[in-house]
Amino acid sequence: MDVLLRDQAATVVITTKNRKDELRVAVRSALAQTTSIEILVIDDGSTDGTAEMLRVEFPSVNLQRREESRGLIVRRNEAARLARGEILISIDDDAEFSAPDIVEATLRDFDDPRVAAVAIPFTDINKGPMVKQKAPPVGRWITNEYIGTAHAVRRDIFTRLGGYREVLVHQGEEGDFCIRLLDAGFVVRLGSAEPILHYESPKRSAARMNIYGQRNLMLFAWHNVPMPYLLVHLPATIWNGLVWGFKEGVLIYRLEGTCRGVAVILKQLFERRPVRPNTYLEFRRLKKNGPAQVGTASG
Length: 299
Description:
The protein is α/β, with parallel strands linked by helices. The chain folds into two domains: 7-198, Spore Coat Polysaccharide Biosynthesis Protein SpsA, Chain A (Alpha-Beta Complex), CATH 3.90.550.10; 206-275, no CATH class. It has helices at 20-31, 50-57, 72-82, 102-108, 155-160, 173-183, 206-224, 230-248, 251-267, 277-289, and strands at 10-16, 37-44, 62-66, 87-91, 95-97, 115-119, 122-124, 140-143, 150-154, 187-190, 196-198, 292-294. The strands form two sheets. Strands 3-2-1-4-9-6-10-8-12 form a nine-stranded mixed sheet, with helices on both faces. The chain has a three-stranded mixed sheet with strand order 5-11-7. Strand 1, helix 1 (20-31) and strand 2 form a beta-alpha-beta unit. Helix 7 runs antiparallel to helix 8 (230-248), helix 7 packs parallel to helix 9 (251-267) and helix 8 runs antiparallel to helix 9.
């Protein structure tokens, strides 16, 4: 049955912390959608009056206020448990829907049972006008993963596969989930909607981004890459990250991320559940060559 036929088939999920003004824009754009939706905001320990603003200005929003900050990965998993919609549409608190029919168009992209997630088109406004994750005008196209600020996923499949790996804490959860999704026989489809606009907030820590970036790429390899490919993939990940860090002047953070990655791997030596070799190779092919055109389930 078409998910568009159901009332509040989708839940727009926004996790937030101390970005009250940006969040206001995001929520307004969600409320302007043509499709009946639930809007679920999880306040991850904000101290800037975020919860108060939402209660006063947007009383229809399902606000979940948390005193302790545990990060967006944990909160997005929590949102999947709390949401009423069958489709979870997730945007960052520093993003907005550029058009009122984005949710409606995205729901239409779930017209095949193999489509477990949709990579919604988006633009990083502060980096330029390029629209990313946009499907070509003809055909159905799949990709290896989606970006956290602009995606939709079937809630039942998300929870069945265990959601995001919470040990990642910050960054890298999308690829880790999407390779498991592919291993389970599902795909990520490129979306057809108008783009989500992402105004990357200046309230981002370069140290944190680089430390967790290096650490989590290592954890992706450890948990997902099958033998014998792991023997090449993991060392190459470490080396490439360090070389990049040296070139960008952030080597100290990449070194710290490497040490943290090794520490977590040692704690999780017996928790490896790698994907099948064919899944890994397909994931790599999509990442290297770009999106691939596919038929429908009946075709």
